[in-house]
């Protein structure tokens, strides 16, 4: 009897716990004009797209500056840990 009561109470408490995981995917387009080089324009377009996505999601815009040195590499995909932005896929 005690096992059944304990099991029911355990299940009830587990069901009442607010378990919540939230993930969002935003698709944005960054725009930049080519002034000095295509690499600089690509970096500015990535910065513009990142700003639009972070601004739309309501996240901290000040954290973008931490990612900018990592975006200077010419890659198709970027993956980050311990940041509000976890993944960037560049389609060109």
UniProtKB/TrEMBL annotation:
Entry keyword Plastid: no
Keywords: Cell projection, Cilium, Flagellum
Short name of any one Pfam family annotated for the protein: FlgT_N
Residue span, Flagellar assembly protein T N-terminal domain: 24-90
Coiled coil: none
UniProt xrefs under InterPro entries: FlgT_N (IPR032370), FlgT_N_sf (IPR038180)
Name of protein: Flagellar basal-body protein
